Each structure stands twice: as C-alpha cells, then as structure tokens.
Amino acid sequence: MYKEFETRTSYKYLKEVIKSLNEPICILGGWAVFFHINMRYEKVQGRPYLGSRDIDLGFNTTGDLKKSALSQAIKTLTEKLNFKPLSFRLVKEIHTETEEEIKDKTVPTHFIFPMYVDLITDCIPNDFRKIFGFTPIDEPLLRRVFEKREFIIMKGFGKKLLLPKLELLLAMKVNSVPNRDREHKKIKDICDIFALAWYSDIKIGEINLAKYASEKNLKKCLKSITDKDFEKAAAQIGHDKGELKRIIDIICKEK
C-alpha cells in the first residue's frame, strides 16, 4: 500500500516536527493509530504496524489566533523546518533516491515524494483565512479532545503528545471512509479501524460510537466498503478478510 521509503520518511519528519513544536502536541490520523496500538501489534505480528505517509496535527482555535499553538507551529514548520504552504497543508519535497530535501527544481517528478503536514482545526473561525491565508481542514470531533479532554497522554520523542481517546479516533476514521477519493487512503482507514479495535485493551462488543458518529455515518461507512476493499486491507494487516468484516460490522452496528 505504502512504500517503506514513504513511511520511513514520514516517521523521520514526524520526529523532527514533534521535537520542534511546543508541547502538548495533538497527533491525529495514521500516526495516532500507530502510537495507540503499535506495541501490541508488533508483539503479535513480529513487525511494526503500518505507518503513514502524511503527518496530521490537531489544533484548538479558541483565543487569539495570532498567539495560538497553530500560529507557532506554522512559523516553526516554515521557517525552521523549511516546509512550504500548499493550499490547506504544508509540504516538503524529498528525493526518493537520495532521501534528501529537493532544492533543484529540475528533478523529474517520479523522483519526488511530497511530504505533507496537515494542520487540522476543531473549527474554522471567521477571521482564520484573513490571518493565515488559507482555509484549513476542520474536524469537529477535535472539540472533544480540547474541550472535554477526551485524550490520552503519552511521551514521544521526548515530548508530551495528546492522542484522541480510542473510540473518538475510531469515529474519526469511520466518518472519513465514505469520503475517501483515493483507494490507498480508504484501505488504510479500514486497516486502522480494525487495528484500533483488535490491538487495544477495549472490548470490541463494548465499543459504542453513537455519541461520536451518527447512525447515518455508521451505515455509510459499512456500505462504502466492498469485499475487494476488505481483501486488500486484510493483505496489509495480516488478518483474514472475514475477520475484518466481522469486527467492522460490530463497530458500526447500531447499539
């Protein structure tokens, strides 16, 4: 699904990003899943859990945006780590052979790996675009991380990290599946949903996403996953496709 070079590069820059930002740092997406379950997954499977190509960071947008953690992160990522703004995200181009940052604009595109950092907010204030010059991805469920403190704290690369609680992260993944327009991201979401349920200490039958995801979204998630999707996800994660389907059916079933 992802080339080893891509996830290795993403992990390398995840480490740099985390070390450069002020804590606590909210990690979302695939790397949040990795931090949640990798220890158990690796113990069982004998290999690390699937990495991510992108780095997803979550931010609260209450208060003075110009003095916010988001503002500080953008400044650090662009001025210190040399990421460049690209629409709603930041990017750094990496050479797939030298594994170094590309500064020569003549490098052929097939040697370029775009390393993205997505800055995700809990809401989008009216003056956001005026201040930052772009409209971010927003994830309303992030409010529960910052306002209701639905997170766990762990140490990563010497910094305090905030990870959404397991059911909350599951809901984010379930909500995203039907909207994926790229197959690899959809398959990764399916893997992540299964892994969060199978390789965590939560009892699968007790997972209740109703307070985070609507019945409509739960049904849309199930309906959008084909038998071929389950087959491809199963091949990536080392489980039978029937097992993946059974667990995801339970997760998305109305309680």
Rounded radius of gyration (Å): 18 Å
Outline the biggest β-sheet.
8 strands, mixed
Task: Specify the helix fraction band.
Answer: 40-55%
Shape type: globular
- Output the helix-strand order: HEHEHEEEHEHEEHHHHH
How confident overall, as mean pLDDT?
A: 94
Number of DSSP E strands: 8
* Ends apart, CA distance between termini: 33 Å
User: Strand fraction band?
Assistant: 15-25%
Please indicate the count of domains. Answer: 2
Helical run tally = 10
Structural class: alpha/beta
Low-confidence stretches: none
Mind explaining what this structure looks like?
- The chain has 255 residues and is an alpha/beta fold.
- The chain folds into 2 domains: 1-164, no CATH class; 166-255, no CATH class.
- Helix content is 45%, strand content 17%.
- The protein is built from 10 helices and 8 strands.
- Strands 1, 2, 3, 4, 5, 6, 7 and 8 form an 8-stranded mixed β-sheet that branches.
- A hairpin with a 2-residue loop joins strand 3 and strand 4.
- Helix 7 (183-198) crosses helix 9 (227-237) and helix 7 crosses helix 10 (241-252).
- The longest helix is centred in the N-terminal third of the chain and has 17 residues, at 4-20.
